[in-house]
Amino acid sequence: MAELQRQTEIFDSLPYYDDDLQKYPSLKERVEQELARQPKPPSTVHPRVPPPYELFAKNPLLRAELERVESHQPFPSLDTLRYQLPAPTSTPATDEEWRDALQNARAQLEHQRIRQTNLTLLQTYGPNAWRIHNYLLEAMAKQTEKTLEDLKQLTVEINRDRKNTQDKFGKQLNTLETRWTELISSVLQIEMANVALDAEVERINKKEAELSEP
């Protein structure tokens, strides 16, 4: 339990109240020099910071594409071999080479047939599918924008609360500092009065001793 409390403690400064660095530029330079001499902070993040989110963890193709874009690698060139019908290169060609060429031609023909079928399906159902897709994207974009606005508003409210809290604490600190100064001044005055009284008592004792002598 004690370990958990130590991990969840947050020490906040009072940037809305402590403005000495802005008032005194020389003090800011001294602080920067002192910070430069300090050791670097640990690389570990705060326990409340969530772990990094791994994109496309279950989709290796999209993950590989994301890594390619992040590394600024060029997009791989299109494979145009599938759109070609190469004939046997040897003369005369063997039966196996002609069978391979014929098989490739049949594969190309089937590929073109599938493309034609897909184009027909796209012309029939594509517009509505794209409208639905765009509608979903717009709804998602609006939801994302609303979430962003809510986060901005929450940030503003948190900063406002921090400023109000720090202003309140700052006034309390000013009051306590003023009271502390008054108490210190009173203590100094009392000490000075004690010193004066000690000197007066000593003077009276000396005077009494002088008068008591024959």
UniProtKB/TrEMBL annotation:
<dbReference type="GO" id="GO:0071011">
    <property type="term" value="C:precatalytic spliceosome"/>
</dbReference>
<comment type="similarity">
    <text>Belongs to the SPF27 family.</text>
</comment>
<dbReference type="GO" id="GO:0008380">
    <property type="term" value="P:RNA splicing"/>
</dbReference>
<feature type="region of interest" description="Disordered">
    <location>
        <begin position="32"/>
        <end position="51"/>
    </location>
</feature>
<feature type="compositionally biased region" description="Pro residues">
    <location>
        <begin position="39"/>
        <end position="51"/>
    </location>
</feature>
<keyword id="KW-0539">Nucleus</keyword>
<keyword id="KW-0508">mRNA splicing</keyword>
<keyword id="KW-0175">Coiled coil</keyword>
<feature type="coiled-coil region">
    <location>
        <begin position="137"/>
        <end position="210"/>
    </location>
</feature>
<protein>
    <submittedName>
        <fullName>Pre-mRNA-splicing factor SPF27</fullName>
    </submittedName>
</protein>
<keyword id="KW-0507">mRNA processing</keyword>
<dbReference type="Pfam" id="PF05700">
    <property type="entry name" value="BCAS2"/>
</dbReference>
<dbReference type="GO" id="GO:0006397">
    <property type="term" value="P:mRNA processing"/>
</dbReference>
<keyword id="KW-0747">Spliceosome</keyword>
<dbReference type="GO" id="GO:0000974">
    <property type="term" value="C:Prp19 complex"/>
</dbReference>
<dbReference type="GO" id="GO:0071013">
    <property type="term" value="C:catalytic step 2 spliceosome"/>
</dbReference>
<dbReference type="InterPro" id="IPR008409">
    <property type="entry name" value="SPF27"/>
</dbReference>
